[in-house]
Amino acid sequence: MGTPGRPQGNPKGETEQANALADFLRELTVGVTVRQLGERYRSGKTSWGEYRSGAKAIPFHLLERIINDREHDPRVRATLLTRARHLHDEAEIAGKGSRPCGSTG
Prior knowledge:
By secondary structure, the protein is mostly helical. It has a single domain, classed as 434 Repressor (Amino-terminal Domain). The chain has helices spanning 16-28, 34-41, 45-53, 60-70, 74-95. Helix 4 runs antiparallel to helix 5 (74-95). The termini are far apart.
């Protein structure tokens, strides 16, 4: 039997960094629907769809909560948080004035 929810599709971020952040979020939330995420973290399904597609950068505090909820080993959690911070910062920087993915000039 398949998992609930629609298939995610390819990332749709404006930058490669936004897509990398979306891919990381998808890894963290694999098997969880946007509805479940919205209920657990008290935000809308639309926002979660945008976060997981890369259309919108997830706020770092939500990313941090997901990691803290998901991973109980402090060493693994620290590694994930470091990676999350790096990906989030890169996506934020790239989103400020860079050209969309695939743009050649």
